[in-house]
Design goal:
- It is a single chain.
- This protein is mostly helical and 123 residues long.
- It has 3 helices and no strands.
- Helix 2 runs antiparallel to helix 3.
- It is elongated.
Length: 123
């Protein structure tokens, strides 16, 4: 019985031909750009979440001897303030991420994958 021999990746590539393709400068630059825009989107999302955490109002505390009308007013004020903070955060997220960064990100990725698909079809 013949002993099994391990074949290294280098030996396999020399037998079958190299399957690795070096990325072009444009592809590398596009990947770095996509990484930068994606990181900016992540930072902007974290910033919006931090904005909500810092500006969200605290719940009204229980007031001893307060009547029902003042408690209702305090709860209504709390609801109004909290919805205002959430609305501002959503507007900020839509402006920064959805309307500005996301179209750039998808355009860069679309260009990269379309460009690499053309090269595969040509090659």
């Amino acid at each position: 019985m013949a002993a099994k021999r391990k074949v290294t990746a280098t030996e396999l590539e020399s037998m079958t031909g190299s399957s690795r393709v070096k990325a072009t400068f444009v592809q590398k630059a596009g990947m770095w750009l996509a990484l930068g825009v994606g990181s900016t989107i992540a930072l902007a999302t974290a910033g919006v979440i931090l904005f909500i955490c810092l500006h969200y109002p605290s719940a009204p505390s229980q007031i001893e001897g307060a009547d029902a009308t003042s408690i209702k007013d305090a709860i209504d004020r709390y609801k109004e303030l909290s919805s205002s903070v959430v609305e501002n955060a959503v507007k900020m997220f839509q402006t920064i991420v959805t309307q500005s960064l996301l179209p750039v990100f998808t355009a860069v990725l679309g260009y990269l994958f379309a460009k690499s698909g053309e090269e595969k079809a040509d090659g």
